[in-house]
Design goal:
Elements lengths: L7 H10 L2 H11 L4 E5 L4 E4 H17 L7 E5 L4 H12 L3 E4 L6 H11 L3 E5 L3 H10 L6 E5 L13 E2 H5 L18 E7 L7 E6 H14 L7 E4 L6 H5 L3 H7 L2 E3 L6 H11 L3 E3 L2 H13 L9 E5 L5 H10 L4 E7 L3 E6 L13 E2 L4 E5 L21 E6 L12 H7 E2 L2 E10 L5 E6 L4 E3 L2 E3 L1 H9 L4 E11 L3 E10 L6 H10 L11 E4 L13 H13 L4 E2 L1
Helix pairs in contact: 2-10, 3-4, 5-6, 8-10, 11-12, 12-13
């Protein structure tokens, strides 16, 4: 290809230096003494210089363990200083940062370990039983297994594991020296998104994705070095780590307040104490926050905005949040693969509450027709009449790699001609505001977690006193959706209590996948070919809940 100018220096500089880590290091230099991170539970903070030093210790320890370029550092940690250390140190070592849900079952954790084959595994001491069981179940064995205890209580470390403190002891505090140059296409972060069955899908994100995801937040909040953020939900989600989490805040030069576990009173106390400017959380969390603020008011006047995602905002709830918490409410819609892609700004609310907003600055969102036998072409859109339903598709070249790790089949199903086909069904109006109507598949979203019935059904069906089951959901104010299991007994003595106990102890089910409601039935709705009809059982579940026929755990 011919150019009108000499591209050599731009190409070399851009391709090796346009990285999130370089952005962080610029802040280490220019904001060296500014506080970057605060852990209220320890009454401890880290300046940008101190944070860099701690990350260097971990990065050098990782390299000393034998890790090489693009090895995986897998960690299951609560929002904590160590989460930040792992995320940054992995990149400093040239490795891939791979956070995952600390609520996963041992079986799910083992699946991720086998799929991603991490060199290093770091876990929180509170999930030690899960970690030990997962490692027993997994074929791949990480070279190093590190237990983190926030308070340094390392009395009960399993054999063969090492405490974080011992792992980094004596490691160099200098910036690691690498034998290679980073590249903009290097994978630096891998997130997990729920799979319909089997292993959760690994979503790779590169240096460009990280930088431009940060830029997206800086534009939309906007976020600056003078802001203080706190995420009320876990960082291991795309929305957690990217929406006011580590990626944008430390790239902007701002300050992060760590919230390990959400408690509405504690959250409001932190806003007042630390002059927080941006809070991030799902709508159900905002509801709890508003209730607490109504009962006992705090001075939360420093808030510039609260950003929600994961589900639509109801209009009356939106008005309540604007009156009680802050007039500046934002609502984003997106995916693990592509971050947020539509956005509702304060000026859009409360009028457009209930919609998902319209596309973000660098994105394009369309609603295309749904065909039985093929995928719609990107230009086969439905009318902008807010009535015709179609599949929501997203073009987001800045924030996605358009693929999954070692999963060619699903990659081809989800990504086509530069678009991601979300599986969400929706409508749009003449101003391109999108409203999400549901799913093409049967996915349940509960407390921000994507849950597929097939995994839960498979687990329950493995109980010898169960003949078969079907799983669906009902609306729930706190969770968004609550899981319901209809079970056909194989043994007449089977009780709901037994099924619940089995689910609680099943190594392949996480706590958030355990159904909240149960009903024992004689049959379940099927098509003429025997396929389960989830849409029918979903409608029935709503009626059964209203009529008191569902037993609650």
């Amino acid at each position: 290809m011919e150019y009108t100018y000499d591209i050599a220096m731009f190409k070399e500089t851009f391709e090796t230096e346009f990285t999130w880590l370089n952005g962080f290091m610029r802040n280490v230099n220019r904001f060296s003494d500014n506080i970057a991170l605060v852990e209220p539970l320890l009454d401890q903070n880290w300046t940008y210089s101190e944070l860099n030093t701690e990350c260097n210790r971990l990065a050098n320890a990782i390299l000393s363990s034998g890790a090489k370029k693009s090895d995986v550092v897998f960690y299951q940690l609560y929002n904590s200083p160590h989460f930040v250390f792992c995320h940054i140190a992995a990149q400093k070592a040239g490795c891939i940062s791979n956070p995952a849900n600390f609520n996963l079952s041992p079986g799910e954790t083992a699946e991720i370990i086998n799929h991603n084959k991490p060199k290093v595994y770091v876990y929180d001491s509170s999930i030690v039983k899960t970690a030990v069981k997962a490692l027993e179940m997994s074929e791949h064995k990480p070279d190093v297994v590190i237990m983190v205890d926030l308070f340094g209580n390392n009395d009960n470390i399993p054999q063969g594991h090492i405490s974080y403190e011992d792992f980094v002891k004596g490691a160099s505090e200098d910036n690691p020296k690498l034998s290679f140059k980073p590249h903009i296409y290097d994978e630096v972060l891998r997130l997990q998104t729920s799979g319909t069955t089997g292993t959760p899908k690994g979503v790779p994100l590169n240096n460009i994705n990280e930088v431009l995801s940060a830029h997206d937040v800086l534009m939309h909040f906007p976020l600056s070095p003078y802001d203080t953020t706190m995420n009320m939900t876990p960082w291991f989600h795309r929305g957690g780590i990217h929406s006011g989490g580590i990626t944008p805040t430390l790239y902007a030069g701002g300050k992060i307040i760590i919230m390990r576990d959400f408690q509405p009173k504690t959250c409001l106390d932190y806003v007042e104490k630390y002059s927080i400017t941006f809070l991030i959380g799902v709508p159900s969390v905002l509801g709890l926050l508003a209730t607490k603020q109504e009962k006992q008011k705090r001075d939360i006047s420093t808030l510039k905005g609260i950003i929600t995602m994961g589900s639509p905002l109801e209009k009356q709830e939106c008005i309540r949040f604007q009156n009680v918490l802050t007039p500046n409410i934002f609502n984003g819609y997106g995916t693990t693969e592509s971050f947020w892609n539509t956005f509702l700004r304060p000026d859009d609310l409360p009028e457009m509450a209930g919609t998902a907003g319209r596309s973000c600055t660098d994105d394009e969102v369309r609603i295309v027709k749904i065909f039985e036998d093929r995928k719609a072409e990107p230009d086969e859109v439905v009318p902008n009449d807010n009535v015709a339903e179609g599949e929501i598709i997203i073009k987001s070249p800045a924030k996605t790699t358009y693929c999954y790790i070692n999963n060619e089949k699903t990659t081809k199903e989800k990504f086509y001609k530069g678009w991601m086909y979300t599986g969400d069904v929706g409508t749009w109006d003449e101003k391109h505001f999108v409203t999400v109507a549901g799913r093409k598949d049967d996915m349940i979203i509960s407390k921000g977690e994507n849950i597929y019935p097939a995994r839960i059904e498979e687990a329950i069906n493995s109980f010898d006193k169960v003949k078969e089951c079907i799983v669906t959901s009902v609306p729930d104010k706190t969770r968004g959706e609550a899981i319901v299991a209809y079970v056909i007994p194989a043994d007449d003595s089977l009780s709901v209590a037994e099924v619940l106990e089995f689910c609680k102890n099943c190594p392949n089910l996480s706590k958030y996948q355990v159904p909240r409601y149960f009903r024992l039935v004689d049959d379940i709705p099927r098509t003429a070919t025997g396929k389960k009809q989830h849409f029918k059982i979903k409608a029935q579940a709503k009626d059964d809940l209203a009529n008191g026929l569902l037993l609650r755990k």
